[in-house]
Amino acid sequence: MPEAKLAVIDSNVFISSYKGNEKSSDYCTALIEKIREGELILAEPAILLSEVIDAIGRYMGENSAKMVENVLRDMVTFWVDCNKNFCIKAGHTGHTYKIYGCDAIYVQVASDFEIPFVSLDEKDLVDKLKKENFQAFKVKEFLDKF
């Protein structure tokens, strides 16, 4: 088996996959399958839990939220705590790339690990980062690299 890739996956990818009814859901599910198959290893900010559990709970109910919490806990290899110093650093990263605060947290993890960042947010995030030569990918684009 080839060596697994390491990446940061934006919360919107998980949410789209679990909701299953968005135009991007199939690509997102295919990417998550790469994680389950051991081809992709994740480094994620701890805020991922809050974002995904909340969205899935609101959309699909508490039982689904608890299920996704357990899945994420097992799926992510490297959790990064969003402590004060990390958030200060992420704030400067957000300013540098002209991206929103929570997006900057994910981008900071990717920057610290020197790994790709994958998101559904093309216009306001992936495209901006690419202009700055940051390793940022749209979901389908990242899948095509496998």
Helix and strand layout, with pairings?
Blueprint (H helix, E strand, L loop, with lengths): L4 E5 L1 H9 L5 H12 L3 E6 L1 H14 L1 H14 L2 E3 L3 H14 L3 H13 L3 E3 L2 H10 L4 E3 H5 L3
Parallel strand pairs: 1-2, 1-4, 2-3, 4-5
Helix pairs in contact: 1-2, 1-3, 3-4, 5-6
Strand order of the largest sheet: 3-2-1-4-5
Order of helices and strands: EHHEHHEHHEHEH
First-to-last CA distance: 12 Å
For this structure, the CATH topology is Rossmann fold
Class derived from helix and strand content: alpha/beta
Low-confidence segments, ≥5 residues, pLDDT <50? Answer: none
- The count of strands amounts to 5
Mean pLDDT: 95
How many structural domains? Answer: 1
- Any idea what the radius of gyration is? 14 Å
Outline type: globular
Q: Under the CATH scheme, which class?
A: Alpha Beta
Number of helices: 8
Strand content: 5-15%
Task: Specify the helix fraction band.
Answer: 55-70%
In the CATH classification, which architecture applies? Answer: 3-Layer(aba) Sandwich
Biggest sheet descriptor: 5 strands, parallel
CATH superfamily: 5'-nuclease
Write a brief structural summary.
The protein is an alpha/beta fold.
Task: Write up what this structure looks like.
The chain is α/β, with parallel strands linked by helices and 146 residues long. It has one domain: Rossmann fold (3-Layer(aba) Sandwich), CATH 3.40.50. The chain is 62% helix and 14% strand. A five-stranded parallel β-sheet has the order 3-2-1-4-5, with helices on both faces. Helix 7 (122-131) links the parallel strand 4 (117-119) and strand 5. Helix 1 crosses helix 2 (25-36) and helix 3 (47-60) packs antiparallel against helix 4. The two termini are 12 Å apart.
